[in-house]
Amino acid sequence: MTPTASILLVDDDAAFRHVMAGELRRLGHEVAAAASGEEAITKAAELDPAIILLDLRLPGMDGLETLKTLRARAPAAEIVMLTGHGTIDTAIESIRAGAFDYVVKPCPLDELQIRIERALERRSLRQRANLLERGLTPPDLAGSFVGDSPEFRRLLHMIERVAPADSTVLITGETGSGKERVAKLIHARSRRKARPFVTVDCAALQESLLQSELFGHERGAFTGAERAKPGLFEVAHGGTIFLDEIGEVSRGDIDLLANHFVSTLNERFASSQRLSEAALALLRGHDWPGNIRELQHAIEAAMVVCEDQEILPAHLPPAVGGAPRPAPRGDSTLPTLDELERTHIRAALEASGGRRGQAARILGISERNLYRKLHELGLG
After folding, report:
1. H or E element that contains 359
2. Of 220, 224, 245, 28, nearest to 116 (Cα)?
């Protein structure tokens, strides 16, 4: 279905206005017309059109001057300039001044319709991004956190520690315990606080729509994709994305998340690595007790040790099923020190109910050392 728009056509040629307005209405558009820049500014304020088709050569206030005024008075409209062959340089200047595109007169209707569709797509993307940015920047909620128990003070201390870091954070707790409030406070105390805080309700997302919601799609990518749509990762760029109830997402979205982490880390490392199908198969088969965080650490560890462009199973951490640790010499069946340490740490975590601070005290090491060992041993 062809998208339609409210259009303001601005041209001093009465015959051109009449013919072009009729053709645009035949395509289903709602069209108003103006014969001068001054009239265009008045009608744009009254009608709030989605698209303005603006002739460069106008009596009185010329097209470029009109464009600059419209950009301030009707910022939501996308403006397409109409230009003759002799004024293409001025049309290019108009794009620098804020026009979306230009069409050379006499303009074929199909070419003009393509420009209108593209302008509508950009307008939709701008509106969605602006709406999300305005509505998704939460205030600092510290004043609403009430408590004085040792556990509560440790939580606030941990928030202050992790907020400045650009790290993935796993927040666990029962329903209603305030996981989202903690996430918002971390965001408000971070360097990203001026950027969007985007909440994704993973439990409510249909599995078939997850990829499109998180990573977006281009126009025509699948049936029903009539226009390009930015993904929520793109919307949250520079801010924070909160994947609420991520545990409800099936270990079948591993491919999407793993490839996203590879892409992100490629930017950080200035590399061009990719996951082999064998490595992806290994990632799909893992239980991921550490969830997203464990997956991200596994991908990062593999990319660090991989010296080629393709990440193979051997590059993945042993805990995920990658290359095993060297076996002891001889016929001994004794476990390696790494295996003993991994087993002992797991036991401490189980005994402490997953509370890492308490597990560190059981093991007689600092919490920082425990985090380091968890990372080194691939325990997430």
Report:
1. helix 356-363
2. 28
Q: Taking every pair of C-alpha atoms in the chain, what is the biggest distance, in angstroms?
A: 96
Mean pLDDT along residues 41-70: 91
Contact at 8 Å (CB) between 66 and 34? no
Contacts of 309 (CB under 8 A, 6+ apart): 271, 272, 273, 274
Structure confidence by residue, pLDDT tens digits, 341-373: 787 788 778 778 888 888 887 777 877 778 878
- The CATH number that applies at residue 287 is 3.40.50.300
Pairing state between β 101-104 and 310-311: unpaired
Q: How far apart are CA 11 and CA 24, in angstroms?
A: 14
Contact assessment for residue 65 and residue 37, using Cβ atoms and an 8 Å cutoff: yes
Q: What is the pLDDT of residues 132-157, one digit of tens each?
A: 555 555 566 666 676 778 888 888 88
Letter for the amino acid at 319?
A: A
Residue type, 95: I
Q: Which residue from 245, 198, 287 is spatially nearest to 295, judged by alpha carbons?
A: 287
**Which pLDDT belongs to residue 334?**
62
Full residue range of the structural domain in which residue 160 is found: 142-320
Contact 28/143 with Cβ under 8 angstroms?
Answer: no
Do residues 226 and 268 touch, judged by C-beta distance below 8 A? no
Same domain for 105 and 173, yes or no, is: no
Q: Which residues pair with 78 in a beta bridge?
A: 51
Residue with tokens 């003759």: 84
- The verdict on residue 273 lying in a domain is yes
Last residue of a domain, one of 100, 135, 170: 135
Residue 1 lies in a domain: no
73 and 180 fall within a common domain:
no
DSSP string, 264-325: HHHHHHT---EE-HHHHHHHHHS--TTHHHHHHHHHHHHHHH--SSEE-GGGS-GGGT-SPP
Please state the domain count of the chain. 3
130 within some domain: yes
Q: Minimum mean pLDDT among 6-10, 146-150, 196-200, 308-312: which range?
A: 146-150
pLDDT greater at residue 319 or residue 129: 319
